[in-house]
Amino acid sequence: MQTRSTRSLSIVAALVLGACGEKDAPVESAAAEAADAAAAEAAAQAAAEAKFIEETAAATLAAMDPSADPCTDFYRYACGGWLDTTERPADQASWTRSFSVINEENRKVLRELLEEAAADPGAGGDDPAAAGDWRRLGELYGSCMDEPAIEAAGLAPVQPILDDIDGLQDLDQLPALLGRLYAAGIGGLWDSEVWGDLKEPDTNMFYMSQGGLGLPDRDYYLRDDDNSVALQQAYRDYLARLLEMSGTPAEQARADAEAIYAFEHAIAEFSLPREALRDPNAIYNPVSADELPELGAHLDLVAWASAAGLPLDYPVSVHNLDWYRSLDGLLADTDVAVVRAWLRAHTLSSLADALPDAWGQLQFEFYGQKVIGQPQRKERWKRCVDSANGLLGEALGRHYVARRFAGDSKERALTMVHDIEEAFRNGLADLAWMDDETRAKAVEKADTLVEKIGYPDKWMDTSAMEISVQPYAANVLAGRRFHVARDLAKVGQPADPSEWYMPPAMVNAYYNPVENEMVFPAGILQPPFFHRAFPDAMNYGAIGMVIGHELTHGFDDEGRKFDKDGRLTEWWSEEVSARFEERARCVEEQYDGYEAVDGLHVNGKLTLGENIADLGGVKLAWNAYKAHEAATGGADPMVPELTDDQLFFVAFAQGWCTLMSPELEKLLVTSNPHSPPRYRVNGPLSNLPAFHQAFSCQAGDAMVREPACEVW
Question: Is 168 within the bounds of a domain?
Fold first, then answer.
C-alpha cells in the first residue's frame, strides 16, 4: 500500500520521464514491459485466487451433511460429510478441520526453514541478531535429527542432574536441590510462571501453583472405575520402567514406583479441582520473603528461591496456600528415598524425548497411547520442528512470517478486529442489565484494548541461549535454562507491553487480562480461518468468531474482574455483578447438561469462561459482519447452495469439525476449560436468534434453546 509520500514520488518520476521526449523511448519501452509483466502477474494471481475460491466452495459443501437437520444438530449438518470421510492420522489423538490442517501446513514450512538452517547455519544474513538466531535454529534442529549422536550420548547430558538428585540424603537439603533443578529447567514439586502482578500489572510477579502430579489431573488418581484403575497401574509400570532403565534394580524400581504413586495420590487428595482455581481473587495471595517460612518447616522457600535465582525483594503469589502447607506435612511423613525416586523419575520423564529412542518410545507408549489414545508416535522431524518452535519460537517465527504472512493480511485482519470491537461497543448500549456507570467503564476498557496481529514488533533476544553442536539433550537443557533465567530476570521489573506469549507460527490466539490485550499470531491467520480472497461471510464466521471470542474473554467471569489497565479490582456495581452472575449461571447450567463421552458430562463451571466467550464471539462476529455487509453493499456469494447468512454459520461451525480419541476426549472433559467441539458449535448457536432465522428453526427444535442464555 502506498503512502502519500511514495505516491508523490511516483508522480514526480512520471513527470520527469514525460519531459524527456523521444530520447528516452527505451526507458518508456522498459516501463511498458514492466507494466505488462505486472498486469500478467496480477491476472495470474486473480486466476489462482478464483480457482482457490472454487475449491474452497466445493470443500465447504463436501464437509457438510445435507441430510442432517440444521435445527436438530447443526454440528452434524455442517461437519457430517467431513466426519464421515476423514480418517484421523495415526500420529494424532485429535484432528480438526481447521487447527490441525493449518498446523500441519505450517509445520512443513518450518521444516523447510530448519533444514536450510541446519544445512548452512552461517547463512543467516548480515544482521547479527538474525544471524545468531539462524545459527541456533540450525544447530538445535540438527542435533535433534542426529539420531546416532543422541544414541551415543546416552544419559551423559543429564547425568550431572541425576547425580545431584542422588546426593539428596536429608529433607533439609531438598529446597536447595529443588531450586537448582528449577534453574536447570527441570521443574519440581510445584508449577510456576512469571506474569504481571494482578494488582500492579506494570510490574512482573512470580506465581507458584499446585503441581507434583505425573497423571494429567487430580481426578485421575481419585477415580475408581475400571478404566481409571487400569491407567493408574499403567502409570506405575511406566515409573518402574523409567527407573529400571536408568540403573535401578528391577525389584527396587517396582517398589519405588509404588511409593511414588502413593506420594502423588496423597498430593492429589489435597489438590484443588481446576474449577476452584479459576477465581483470580482466590488465587492471588502475595507472600513476602519474611512470610514464606510460614508455609512449612520442610519447604524452606527462601532457600529454594536462593538456589533457583529468584529475587525475593518483590512478593511472590502463591495460588493455594493450604496446598503448600499440606505438602509440607506430607514431606514430614515421607522417606527421603521416595522423594529422591520421585525426582529421578520425573526428571527422566521430562527429558525422555531428548534422550536415546528407547526413552522417548517408553514415554510415548504411556502418555501417547494410553493417556490420549494416539496410535503412532510422530516422525522425528515433526518432533524436532515442534521442539524448535517451543524453544526458539520467535527466532523461527521471524523467518516463517517472511515466507508465509505476506501481502495485506495483517491490515485486513486488523480491519475485522476493529469492526468486532465496534460491534461490542454498540452492543453495550443495548444491555438493559448494565447500569450507565459500569457501561461507561466497559466502553473505556474496550477502547483501551490492545490488538497484536501476526508477529511482534520487537523480536526476543536469544543470544544468551547456549545452543551449539552438542548432544540434543544438552541443547534442550540449554534452551530451558535460558527461558527460566529470562523469566526470573523479569521478576520485580517493569512489564514489557511488547512481549508476546505465543510464537508467530502457533495456530492459536489468546487474551491476556493483565495487559488487556488480544493476540492473533500469523499461524492462525490462514485458510480455512482466514484468507483475503474469502467472502466476508466466511472470514467473519471463521476468524471473526475467534476475534470475538478473545475480546469477550475480557468480559467473561474472570476477565471482567480486571479493569482497563489490567488491574484486578472491583469496577462493577454490586447490582450489575449480580445480574451478570445470573446470566452466567444460565450458561453454566446449559453446559452441565451436555454429555461428552461415556457418561461424563461437560463441567459447566470449569468451562464457563470459554463458553461465555464462544457465545459472545459468534454474536459479535455476526453483528460485525452484518454492519460490514450494510456498509459495503451486501451479498458476496461463494456457495450457491447457501445464503451468505447461512455460509457465515457454516464457516463458524466447520472451524470445529473434529475427530478425537475417546481417551483424549475424557482427558479434556476432566481438565480442559474448553467444551467438546460439538458443543462449541451447538451450544452458542442454540441461543442465537440470528441463527434460528437463517435456517428457519422454530420453537421446540433442539437448536432453539428456551429460555435462551445471553450474557453479552
Answer: yes
